[in-house]
Amino acid sequence: SQQGEEDPQALSIQEGENATMNCSYKTSINNLQWYRQNSGRGLVHLILIRSNEREKHSGRLRVTLDTSKKSSSLLITASRAADTASYFCATSGTYKYIFGTGTRLKVLA
Amino acid sequence: DAGVIQSPRHEVTEMGQEVTLRCKPISGHDYLFWYRQTMMRGLELLIYFNNNVPIDDSGMPEDRFSAKMPNASFSTLKIQPSEPRDSAVYFCASSSNGLAGDSYEQYFGPGTRLTVT
Question: What is the mean pLDDT of chain B?
Fold first, then answer.
């Protein structure tokens, strides 16, 4: 069964706008990761946030984690056409990661 | 490093045939994962290895699926006999133990697109 569920399933925005996608999960976790997948390619790791962290930044990415609500959000600021991809959250209790269903982001130039 | 290498990139076969997918992880990584991705079911973990030993194969759908890792630089996923519902993209990923013990990123290969007719 899926551990993470991303929301929305699809998102379309204009270049320069911010994109926010959310992930909800069901059980306790050690950490949560976000990955990007371009069409026809493998997943690429973006950022990891540990269960004792609340917020983390990496370039134009900002991730938050609320363990009380079992949810995380990924914010991409000043989006670019190259950010068009599917984004997945992955949660882990141990070394086994469970991936969510993904958010398909389309950034229009 | 060339990253995780998978072969073949595309495979088309007829129902009932044996299919073997191959993976070469990144040198030095001690975890190897096999995933299957479909539109209906998303990305599913099939099996993972640590130091060449299978740790969790609970995601392997049926006995028709088997995976081996004879050494640190090679793994195979075999489907015998194949069925149309096995059509999917199969990914291999590898990782190493993070400094904190539980924090690491997975490096994915480009995937093998399998079509069973």
Answer: 92
